[in-house]
Amino acid sequence: MTVLVVESTYPLTMTGGEVVDPDVPQEDSEQTFQWLLDEGEQRLGRAWPGLLATGFLGGLDVGVGVLALLLVQHVTHNILLAGIAFSIGFIALTLARSELFTENFLVPVAAVVAKRSSLRALGRLWAATTVMNLAGGWLVMAIVIAGFPSLRATAVEAGSGYIELGITWHACALALIGGMLITLMTHLQHATRSDGVRLVPATVMAFLLGAGHINHAIVASLVCFAALHAGAPFGYADWLGMFTLAAVGNLIGGLTLVTVLRLLQVSHKVLAERRTNI
Fold it and tell me: Are 43 and 108 in contact (CB under 8 A)?
């Protein structure tokens, strides 16, 4: 009788008397995770001047996209074309390495989960970036409306659309989608080192945000600021209510629908980092 012996190239482990195949390394996901950690640690460790300037520039960059959206919407009355035009803002955001508050639901969170930084540093980053995004956006929208008075009616119409969402499940769902889209964009951009490839998710997600009138805290705020500068029928209290709901929804959507699941993909790496950084 001939006995055939097959040698496996993969080591096997015994668990409860059973032979269990080892996990197959997820090399691409693990490399992306490492890039996330490195950049997250860098973002959380920024000095105040760099942190504030980066957030302010983020508001200015997206403001360029809002200008493009309003111009195209005013001329064509076509929301799809306006959405394409809005992607200019996210292209600028990507190439200029500025940041939005909502882009910080994955990269710095991964660094904190891996114990490379603290919750206090994360709170500092979120708060400073939010305030400076809004400050930069408010300023650029004031300049836009002063420079393009013909856009006043278009700005008021666009801004009123966000305010009219109110505090409803519709508004909450759009906010969850907004957080999911921007966090997915962040993940896709950190899966490559090519600026050209990074522009693809930036363009696609910006189009969806603009054309879909999705409840994104910063984008919607800039559109509302343009409307307020143009004499909108609503006030800053109405904007604040819209912004609060959108920000909370974006946060929940980004963390639960993208960040948690992406970290579970590389849970063994997360645990290894946590043990290393104790």
Answer: yes
Supply the pLDDT for residue 1. Answer: 42
CA distances to 19, 171, 190 from 262, rounded to whole Å, are: 28, 26, 12
* Range 222-232 average pLDDT: 98
The whole-angstrom separation of Cα 28 and Cα 202 is 20
* Residues 30 and 42: beta-carbon distance below 8 Å: no
User: Which residue has tokens 């029928």?
Assistant: 233
C-alpha 20 chain-centroid distance: 39
* H or E element that contains 36: helix 27-44
Contact present, 137 and 218 (Cβ < 8 Å)? yes
8 Å CB contact between 125 and 39: no
The tokens describing 136, both together, are: 């930069």
Q: Are 235 and 215 in contact (CB under 8 A)?
A: no
The tens digit of pLDDT for each residue in 28-72 reads 778 888 888 888 888 999 999 999 999 999 999 999 999 999 999
58 near 131, Cβ under 8 Å?
no
**Is the CB of residue 156 less than 8 Å from the CB of residue 227?**
yes
pLDDT in tens, 133-172: 999 999 999 999 999 999 999 999 999 999 999 999 999 9
For residues 62 and 103, the answer to whether their CB atoms sit within 8 Å is: no
Go through the domains of the chain in sequence order and give each one's CATH number. 26-276 (1.20.1080.10)
User: Helix, strand, or coil here: 19?
Assistant: strand
pLDDT bracket for residue 10 (50, 70, 90) = very low
pTM greater than 0.85 (yes/no): yes
Query: Does residue 8 register a pLDDT over 60?
Result: no
Cβ neighbour number for residue 224 with a 10 Å cutoff:
29
Q: In sequence order, what are the beta bridge partners of 15?
A: 18
